[in-house]
């Protein structure tokens, strides 16, 4: 199996109306969007790079935006990238040591892994994940 440590392995798009965005990305790029039933929140899985984990492919997710939409015409407005790390908790400590902040504390998401969200010193958001092996849940 390929080692994904410290690589971007997932992206996330936030939207005021996720179904509108799902329809848009499907029509424009042919991405397969499927509503996820694995949590207590609305989330769509985005298969942009193919089904499952294909070498070199990055798939993502689509969630309801928390807060205002960006202003039209802003030159930069990006998707949130999620980085695979060996240990989310250890990496969160490094983020804090080097001037970043934790916006969502580390938490276990059954069937997915341990996740957290942080910002860099310039307030750019990124996610961290230590994935569970495919098909295995922690007990």
Task: Note down, in words, how this protein is organized.
With 139 residues, this protein is α+β, with helices and mostly antiparallel strands. It contains two helices and eight strands. It has helices at residues 18-29, 88-97; strands at residues 8-15, 32-35, 43-47, 59-64, 80-84, 101-109, 113-119, 125-131. It has an eight-stranded mixed sheet, with helices on one face. A hairpin with a 3-residue loop joins β6 (101-109) and β7 (113-119). The model has no long low-confidence stretch (mean pLDDT 81).
Q: What's the rounded overall pLDDT mean?
A: 81
**Most strands sheet:** 8 strands, mixed
Overall structural class, as computed from helix and strand content, comes to alpha+beta
List segments where confidence is low: pLDDT < 50 over at least 5 consecutive residues.
Answer: none
Shape: globular
- Measured between the Cα atoms of the first and last residue, the distance is 23 Å
Compute the gyration radius: what is it? 15 Å
Number of strands: 8
Topology:
Blueprint: E1 8-15, H1 18-29, E2 32-35, E3 43-47, E4 59-64, E5 80-84, H2 88-97, E6 101-109, E7 113-119, E8 125-131
Parallel strand pairs: 1-4, 5-8
Antiparallel strand pairs: 1-5, 2-3, 3-4, 6-7, 7-8
Summarize the structure.
The protein is of the alpha+beta class and 139 residues long. It has 2 helices and 8 strands; from the N terminus they run βαββββαβββ. The chain is globular and about 40 Å long.
For this entry, give a set of tags:
8-stranded mixed beta sheet, globular, 139 residues
């Amino acid at each position: 199996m390929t080692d994904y440590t410290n690589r971007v392995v997932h992206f996330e798009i936030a939207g005021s109306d996720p179904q509108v965005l799902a329809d848009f990305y499907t029509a424009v790029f042919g991405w397969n969007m499927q509503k996820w039933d694995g949590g207590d929140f609305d989330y769509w899985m985005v298969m942009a790079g193919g089904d499952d984990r294909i070498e070199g492919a990055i798939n993502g997710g689509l969630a309801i935006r928390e807060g205002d939409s960006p202003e039209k015409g802003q030159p930069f407005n990006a998707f949130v990238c999620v980085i695979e790390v060996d240990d989310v908790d250890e990496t969160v400590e490094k983020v804090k040591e080097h001037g970043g902040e934790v916006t969502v504390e580390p938490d276990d998401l059954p069937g997915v892994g341990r996740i957290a969200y942080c910002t860099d010193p310039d307030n750019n958001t990124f996610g961290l994940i230590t994935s569970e092996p495919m098909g295995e849940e922690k007990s």
